[in-house]
Design a protein that fits this description.
156 residues; 28% strand; binds flavin mononucleotide; 4 helices; two-stranded antiparallel ribbon
């Protein structure tokens, strides 16, 4: 008898420094848990390296600083995602500004994923984020509704 090794758990792995991507990942995990009635592992990719073979459905999220998507997420994406379903998102200042959204999506999603030709995500998005300097909010374009709507449309 053939053993099916892959579990039905979903992974939501994130890299976050100021917390926006972490919070977005929590929202996404909740939506997927309800939608698919499965266990969703919410994992900080900076602290933990999840075993890819344990998942066939994954969401990977990352923040952006100084024009760079956080490396802990990019490192994770270097693996072989063949026959897996992956959704990818970023949280960044640019995507929260309607005038800069297209550019942010291109820079941090399209151009970044072009470095991973074997990764063919089923869904991608760029969300806004938050920035504080010395406790003072510089901008807050975190949009939990947009994040929730995107998660609901992920077709695993
Ligand atoms: C030092 C610093 C540099 C940043 N650089 C960029 C940038 O180059 N492009 C951008 O769109 N947003 C930039 N941002 C905004 C972040 O993307 C935003 O704070 C986002 O919430 C980061 O994700 P995180 O909260 O999960 O760490 C920067 C923020 C900081 C604090």
């Amino acid at each position: 008898m053939e053993m099916v090794q892959i579990s039905h758990r979903i992974l939501v792995g994130y890299a976050s420094k100021d917390g926006a991507t972490k919070e977005a990942s929590g929202i996404i995990a909740e939506v997927l848990k309800k939608k698919y009635n499965v266990t969703v592992d919410l994992i900080d990719l900076k602290k933990t390296s999840p075993k890819l073979e344990e998942y066939d459905k994954l969401v990977v999220g990352a923040g952006v600083r100084a024009g760079k998507v956080y490396s802990d997420a990019l490192k994770f994406l270097k693996q072989n995602f063949e026959s897996k379903k992956v959704a990818f998102f970023v949280c960044c200042g640019g995507a929260g500004d309607p005038k800069k959204y297209e550019e942010a999506y291109k820079n941090y999603v399209t151009d970044v994923l072009a470095n991973y030709p074997n990764l063919k995500p089923i869904s991608t998005e760029a969300f806004g984020g938050r920035m504080k300097i010395l406790g003072k909010t510089v901008f807050d374009t975190f949009d939990s509704k947009k994040i929730k709507n995107w998660a609901e449309k992920i077709d695993f």
